[in-house]
Write a structure and sequence with these properties.
The protein has one domain. The protein has 6 helices and no strands. Keywords: Membrane, Transmembrane, Transmembrane helix.
Length: 161
């Protein structure tokens, strides 16, 4: 099947934004897209695993676990060092994979995806805090709304690819 990534710049930014909300969703979505739309641009590169069906499944399972784990009171803040590092790396992986699949320089996609992930991490953290405080809605419900946004955005990106 021919690769149908239409605009890698905006797709890398979008995937990075998703990584800022839910870190494992960006590589899950990217791997899902790339496993259905194989690219010669990724063949024989360190990113070739992103086209593998088993990698796509593993990322999807990690994303589902993250959806559940986000609602637990013991889950650290997304802006804590380990969490924000994971989100940056996740966005960078997704962006690099999309860019490389289209025959572009992977490092540009990594910078775009990782940067968008950092911005989205802080923006979504403070927006969630303000929403919980301002509405008095239970935090896990706001987290569920974030999950729905991630799934909806991911479905839109997968459809566009």
């Amino acid at each position: 099947m021919k690769l149908k990534i239409s605009n890698p710049f905006w797709q890398a930014i979008s995937l990075g934004t998703i990584a800022g909300l839910r870190s494992m969703s960006a590589p899950a979505l990217t791997s899902h897209i790339l496993s259905h739309h194989q690219s010669k641009g990724l063949s024989h590169t360190p990113l070739s695993f992103m086209q593998n069906d088993k990698a796509a499944l593993a990322f999807k399972l990690m994303a589902l676990a993250e959806f559940a784990g986000d609602k637990l009171p013991s889950t650290p803040n997304r802006i804590a060092f380990p969490a924000i590092t994971t989100r940056f790396l996740s966005g960078a992986l997704a962006g690099a994979s999309i860019y490389k699949a289209k025959g572009h320089k992977a490092y540009i996609g990594a910078i775009l995806g990782g940067s968008a992930a950092i911005l989205s991490t802080f923006g979504s953290f403070y927006l969630r805090k303000a929403t919980v405080k301002g509405t008095k809605i239970f935090d896990p419900i706001i987290g569920g709304i974030e999950d729905a946004l991630v799934v909806g955005a991911g479905a839109g990106l997968a459809k566009a690819a």
